[in-house]
Design a protein that fits this description.
Distance between the termini: 54 Å
Strand content: 15-25%
Strand order of the largest sheet: 7-8-9-6-5-13-11-12-10
Number of domains: 2
CATH topology of the largest domain: Beta Polymerase, domain 2
Largest sheet: 9 strands, mixed
Number of helices: 15
Helix content: 40-55%
CATH architecture of the largest domain: 2-Layer Sandwich
Radius of gyration: 25 Å
Shape: globular
Oligomer: single chain
Amino acid sequence: MTPEAAGSVALSPRPGKIRVLRVTNAVTFLLTALLDFTDPRGYKMTRIAQAQIAVSGWDAPTRHLARDWVIGTVSDFPRSSYSMKDVKRAGELIAGRHPMNPGTLEAFKIANAWREDHAYPMRSIRCQLIWYMRHLELEGVTAARLKRMQAIRRKLTRIGLNLSQLQDLGGCRAVVPKIADVSALVGVLRDRSRHHLRAENDYINNPKPDGYRSHHLMFNFRGRGQAKYYNDRRIEVQIRTRMQHSWATAVEAVGLFRGEDLKGNKGNPDWLRLFKLMSAEFAVAEGCPEPSDVPNHQKRVAEIKALNKTLQATATLENLSNAVRWTDIAIAPSSKPSYYLIKYDNATNQVSVEPFFAPSTAMQSYEKAELADNESGNDTTNIVLVEADKLENMKEAYPNYFGDVQLFRMQLANITTGLGAREFVVRPQETVRSRPKENPNYMWLKGRRR
């Protein structure tokens, strides 16, 4: 079938079928490679790359699926030209506290190239997340990020692995309303994803000692065609409830604000204790196991109240969002950036966000921004490149960079006033009652024929 005859090919609503869509200029809208996974019902999905498709004749759910499933051709994404030996050596160099010189600069260049190699697998697996959430009719948001170089360096130093062994250079995140949604999404990914599930950590039923709760799935990417180049790139998927998300991002937000690595269990012991006790209350509210070594509910609430008073935690959380300043970015309604470069200045609590449309441009800007911060020697800026469908989703998935801790603050206020922690409930969308069906009277037509 020629491109002119085929037009664009998109996912079909029925197994085993491919529907041909008409386009205004068939030559422009060429079919690209197959998507890198199989859909929940077992038939192959295709993708539309760099094209605006005509969706006439498709129902509304199919339209937004087609719109959101634009991954881009494999050639849009960076490829590293370095050997695994180079990558391992670069990891050893950046893990240490070496002064900036041509050798370390080259090491950072190699490490960044290896990180960029995970951009395409990360985007593909996130699109898989979107599909399964739609298939299961789950509310929620997804986003993804390439791991910050500062975090890469800390992790290499802490755990002693080489750079090629890190499992979360590319990370995807799904935030859903409740525990049942987490279980459903984990189950379908575990059973039906074409990517190799290398390992998983159930931190919901087995919370970390500091109180962290989420479900992690570690995949080795499996691609077809040109995408085979990225095979075995490791991508981590985090799936969590809104309550768990509010806890985890509050830990990071307070840590950023205070200049402490609370996420790494370092910093003010009272704040760390408060977060652990709050995690236990959240676990009870969701019907899940509590973290280890916490007192019973009555003693726990009493201790939370005391820590809240000592730390003035509720007031601190209330003021945190006002202390962090950021400037809204103007994005035309018709524009749909795929990447957002976030820069959080620890010294001034100022945040800047820059949107990008092309993967290559976004990666280059990420590398340039981090290199400038490293060369300064101050390490005062947290820089991260986030992939999201829109600005609102990016902010919801990573509220810690914007000082948004209001959901956690509300739960803390509920607990300290005796109401207790409560699951976040999404109100059903109000619908207008459909107009009653009318039976038309055709007698007037019969009368005209006489």
